[in-house]
Amino acid sequence: MAIEQVKDILSRFSFYQHAPEKWQQAFVKNGIYREGATGDTFFHEGDACAFIAFLGSGSIRVYKIGDIGRQITLYHVLPGESCVLNMTCTLAQIPYPANAQVEQDARMVLFPARQFREWVGRVDSLREFAFSLLAHRMTQMMTLLEEISFKKMDARLAEFLARQFSNQGRPLRVLHLTHEQIAAELGTAREVITRLLHEFQRIGAIELARGRILLKEEQVLRTLK
């Protein structure tokens, strides 16, 4: 049963699809099926990377915690992806430099670190997947750095809300998010988010309810970005 689950997850990844059959068989043979429940810790900062994970379903949040306990989200690992920090730490054999937590029930395939390092040097499709992922995440991190350095928090919040409401082409009218969760995503204090959300509500862009944010006027929200 586990072998079929491993094969099902790997079949969603380009490196598996484009690999010669002998390598496909090796991936399935060495893959370890794992599940993670919402809230489970995937990595603590400083953990050794004994494995690398490829996500089949769910999501994982990767974040940093500052000296005073404030959090900022670096990125989210989604189905069909791997964590780039997990990958670089596996390749370089260094500790994981952030924290990672399952935010939606996850199914994944794990490869032992030593096995993955060997494969990257021998399997073209896996190496290409790794380089592509590294380039994609580097672009995301540069964008995050630019936003933190040069954008005001009201614009960052408006952009975050607009992105959440758009939901990757499947629009939502209601977000089930607390002020604390948004603050952790954007790396600021809850009080700052609360103040800005109330301002957004005052001008008619959104409506606030307990644990929910309702979209009222999308165009008004977009003018704040």
Summarize the structure in words:
By secondary structure, the protein is an alpha+beta fold. Helix content is 49%, strand content 24%. The protein is built from ten helices and eight strands. Strands 1, 2, 3, 4 and 5 form a five-stranded antiparallel beta sheet that branches. A three-stranded antiparallel beta sheet has the order 6-8-7. Strand 7 and strand 8 form a beta hairpin. Helix 5 crosses helix 6 and helix 8 packs across helix 9. It is elongated, with a radius of gyration of 20 Å. The N and C termini lie far apart (48 Å).
Number of helices: 10
Round the Cα radius of gyration to an integer and report it: 20 Å
* Tally of DSSP β-strands: 8
Please state the overall shape, judged from the principal axes of the Cα atoms: elongated
Give the biggest sheet. 5 strands, antiparallel
Percent in helix:
40-55%
Strand percentage: 15-25%
Whole-number mean pLDDT: 94
The helix/strand series, from N terminus to C terminus, equals HHHEEEEHEHHHEHHEEH
Query: From the helix content, strand content and strand pairing, which structural class follows?
Result: alpha+beta
Report the uncertain regions. Answer: none
From the N-terminal CA to the C-terminal CA, the straight-line distance is 48 Å
